[in-house]
Design brief:
Keywords: Cytoplasm, Metal-binding, Transferase, Zinc, Zinc-finger. The protein is of the alpha+beta class. It contains two helices and six strands, in the order ββββαββα. It has a two-stranded antiparallel ribbon. It starts with a strand and ends with a helix.
Length: 96
């Protein structure tokens, strides 16, 4: 099993974010992939998406700016199925 860790530091938002110049809270985000050929290929694609700034976004939650997952789906749990961002999900690797 592959476990991806994204450490997003707290900082100030930039131009193009919902409230430029405002501080936001970061956090640790985990994603899971199977440790096989497809999972490793997907991990590399997710790494490219992260480098391009496509993995996370800044959203206002209860009056506070926070880093949250973006539009690219990630499996954040090993279980619970598709409804809980987990496995089993037979189509995840081909869809992501």
């Amino acid at each position: 099993a592959l476990r991806l860790l994204f450490k997003m530091l707290s900082s100030c938002s930039k131009v193009g974010d919902p409230r430029p110049g405002q501080p936001y809270k970061g956090g640790n985000f985990y994603a899971f992939l199977p440790d096989n050929r497809e999972g490793q290929k997907t991990a590399m694609l997710l790494k490219k998406a992260f480098a391009a700034g496509l993995t996370f976004q800044i959203k206002s939650c209860n009056g506070e700016e926070r880093v949250t997952w973006g539009l690219i789906p990630h499996k954040t749990s090993w279980d619970g199925g598709k409804a809980r961002n987990g496995y089993p999900d037979a189509h995840y690797l081909s869809e992501v």
